[in-house]
Structures
1.
Amino acid sequence: MSADIPGYGIIDILFAMVKDTIHPSLSMFKHVLGLNKLDLNTKDKDGHTLVYYSICNGHFEIIKFLFNTIKVESIDVNAGFINACYKAYYVTVQYVIANFHLDPSMVININSDAVLLASVYPKICKLILTIPGIDVNFKYNTGNTALIYAAVDNRVETCQLLLTIPEIDVNIQNKIGETALLHATNLGLVKICQLLIARPDINVNLRNIKGETPLIHAVSKEHFEICKLLLARPEIDVEIIYDHTFSLMEYVRLKVKNRKIKELFKKYDTNLFTDILEPIKKLFMTNTAVEHSKTN
């Protein structure tokens, strides 16, 4: 094999290996490399190095070889690391974290952020959160945090993990005012709601830009179990105005069809309680009148 094959030199072969065009082994990689002395920090036409592609595609043995052979560039490792997280290459992610000082500002601010991508994979997320300087409350373009994304995707295990981080802020609102809890109540995600509502620092009365609270979401979507969880919080606001028109209690009384939800609210609204009893009262009075007419 010669490096002067037109259009396909040794470096091209090495790049083809780590780009996953072929499936490389370390011995094959070293064999091709041994055919010529090459600068292993050479970049391809896209500006990426062998280190970048090796990390991106989880070629663990080649990564170790390159790390021990050359001085790798920070930008290549950071960028490749994001892709390894996205593809859930656990061993590669673990090795890079243990053997390279990742730049947290690169990890956080790159378009495809590692914590966001890792929210799909709890084991990867756990590794990411060990990087010094990682901001677990970082907001993306939409204002969403890793916790909000994990809640929206119903990633229970990831939410559990994120909630163990002391610095986690469960009340962060995105650009439309939604928190992780607001999203979870709207979507009817009971297990996520259980995790969040159990937090002593959760604000169960935060409003989004439309003025909606978690309880409004739960009531309007008639999520009984979530209504029950929210009403168990002593600070829950049941007097809130719904849709700038009438109170939440009026909405429950007039619009909600779920009788179990109406029962939950009866201790807060004497009028609602009367409404619930009214059909029973009418039936009793009708039966009494019929019995009275029979005796006469």
2.
Amino acid sequence: MSGIILYIEHNLENLRLVQRAVEEIGLTLFCARSGADGLACVERLRPAVILIGLDLPDVDGFHLARALRRRLDEALHCVPIIAISAQEPDAGSQRDAGSQPDAEAERAIAAGCSVYLPRPLDIRRLWDLLERFLAAGDLG
């Protein structure tokens, strides 16, 4: 399994968590700290998988996903984009516990993301997705 993974995220704690998880399965993660930097990195690195934090300082992740889908050339158009929620669920809100992540997931998919991962981040799910997407890329 090989390929470049790009994570567009400004929160250092989130970056470190995902970097440790990705390195634990023998992959290398490239990081961009803003949407503008992320767009530039996509052009330069041509990643196999893109991870996007939804709360960036210069643009929200939904807008960035739409921009990536518009800008990606034919060779990169099918690159999987994994949206990672910026928000932990509100533990005090039992009644609407599923509504915020569900609405955010719908927005992410509508914006062009392949998958939405809520917080707290399920590292095993992230590993499974990366392995699946990278294996599919190796077949083409």
